[in-house]
Amino acid sequence: MLKPLGDRVILEVTQEEEKTVGGLVLASAAKEKPQTAKVVAVGEGNVLENGQKSPMPVAVGDMVMFEKYSGTEVKYDGSEYLIIAAKDIMAIVE
Amino acid sequence: MLKPLGDRVILEVTQEEEKTVGGLVLASAAKEKPQTAKVVAVGEGNVLENGQKSPMPVAVGDMVMFEKYSGTEVKYDGSEYLIIAAKDIMAIVE
Amino acid sequence: MLKPLGDRVILEVTQEEEKTVGGLVLASAAKEKPQTAKVVAVGEGNVLENGQKSPMPVAVGDMVMFEKYSGTEVKYDGSEYLIIAAKDIMAIVE
Amino acid sequence: MLKPLGDRVILEVTQEEEKTVGGLVLASAAKEKPQTAKVVAVGEGNVLENGQKSPMPVAVGDMVMFEKYSGTEVKYDGSEYLIIAAKDIMAIVE
Amino acid sequence: MLKPLGDRVILEVTQEEEKTVGGLVLASAAKEKPQTAKVVAVGEGNVLENGQKSPMPVAVGDMVMFEKYSGTEVKYDGSEYLIIAAKDIMAIVE
Amino acid sequence: MLKPLGDRVILEVTQEEEKTVGGLVLASAAKEKPQTAKVVAVGEGNVLENGQKSPMPVAVGDMVMFEKYSGTEVKYDGSEYLIIAAKDIMAIVE
Amino acid sequence: MLKPLGDRVILEVTQEEEKTVGGLVLASAAKEKPQTAKVVAVGEGNVLENGQKSPMPVAVGDMVMFEKYSGTEVKYDGSEYLIIAAKDIMAIVE
């Protein structure tokens, strides 16, 4: 298991359905990276100046939209994840 | 539904009327991006050092002007939105 | 009407008189942008850490000088304005 | 009259005497910009976090040395001035 | 022994198993640097404004994932280590 | 006299003895700039957030070493000086 | 004697033993700069906002490892030293 530190969140990036033509999957080189992902782990928050921890705005299971090009891709146990700072998550998809 | 986090605001960008010549819409490559948009969702504000949340200066339904090149364009449920930080909204059009 | 947010100010840029030669207006490409403008709207100020708002140093009707290349030009109701942060206004012309 | 805002100061840049050869003034292209100037107006200081204003280190009439390339040149009422932040004034020439 | 200062952590980078073909180790030039490491020493934390020290989020023996290109490689007593700031450790591998 | 403002210090840069060959002074183009200087004036310190002034770490008459390329060279009354921020003075030569 | 100011530390860089082949010292152009040094003087610490001084993490006589390319090389009394900020010292070699 990966336990994110500080205000980091671990995301499982959802693969968007690709357009197909006659059953043939089009692997477009120009296809944009998906921006939607599922939260699989949440850090405890950053330690603030007053010693308390910053509240985390998302919870495990949330579907979220995140800033493009933010976060770090990691491979763990055969799967790929994105470790991202909470501030780079833009919105929850409800 | 998209729920913006922190001090983010979700805007629905209003398409400006395009000039037409004899009913033909001119799709000008040089046409500037519109800067006016309608607020469709407002975050709860950033958490300040004292634990309170920053007040949000706009409300759902407001027409606003925003800084060029700010925000992130997202696609949700077939529509396009702009997710933008409240500080990048310059003015309310009343 | 445009209502500026935060510490923004809306300026109506005063056109400087152009030099004319025998009644012919010289539209010089090299003519510098005017730096003097009239204040037409003033924001309520930024929210400070203590919850109060920053005092605004100018009032509607003031003639001001501003930093070159600061602010954002917007078009509203057929007129052009400059939306600028209060800190980029250098002086009041009294 | 120009009233500087915040911690700005308005300087009247003193022209350094130019070297002459036999009464002929040498207008050297390479002549360095003068760094000495006379204070003609002083702002009220920046508003600090505690609501008070920052003290201004110079007074009208002071001769000062300032950092090269700092400040903004403005023209007002036929004269040229330099509007500069107080922190960019290095020393008072007593 | 190396005693890290401030919020630094000393890591022993775990060599990932290399793919072999018929017993021949493939020394791929393109092989990515490993991102997983073992904590071998932990600093006492940075001194905060209130005189206390920042808590350290990892302990000796933890397996961690760290930001690529962060930290400084050092050689000590014949072994290689990475000295890294605690904030650049992304997650604990449990 | 030059009175430095804020945490500025005025230095009189000591010329290092140049190597001579048979009495001929070698004006080496590659000669490094001297880093040692004598303090000739000291500012009152920066105003801190609590209204007090920052203590100045050097006194008139001190010989000091300073960061290369820091400070501004000025000419005053026929002599050359360096006006430098106190933080750019590295050490006192005792 | 050199007395470092603020949180600066003066280091005497230890020359690493060079590899020799049959007694011949190999002066490798590619040899990395040594990262280990001996502390010979320690500043009193920076003045913090509360008026106290920051504690210094090293003492005279400590062997330390420091960040590459940090600090300023100075020559004093025929010897070469490195003046470095305490924050750029990574670890004490015990």
From TrEMBL, chains A, B, C, D, E, F, G:
Q: Which Gene Ontology cellular-component terms appear in the entry?
A: cytoplasm
Q: Which Pfam families match?
A: Cpn10 (PF00166)
Say yes or no: keyword ATP-binding present.
Answer: no
PANTHER family linked to this entry: 10 KDA HEAT SHOCK PROTEIN (PTHR10772), CO-CHAPERONIN GROES (PTHR10772:SF58)
> Subunit structure, briefly?
Heptamer of 7 subunits arranged in a ring. Interacts with the chaperonin GroEL.
Question: What protein family does this chain belong to?
Answer: Belongs to the GroES chaperonin family.
Annotated function: Together with the chaperonin GroEL, plays an essential role in assisting protein folding. The GroEL-GroES system forms a nano-cage that allows encapsulation of the non-native substrate proteins and provides a physical environment optimized to promote and accelerate protein folding. GroES binds to the apical surface of the GroEL ring, thereby capping the opening of the GroEL channel.
- The name under which this protein is listed is Co-chaperonin GroES
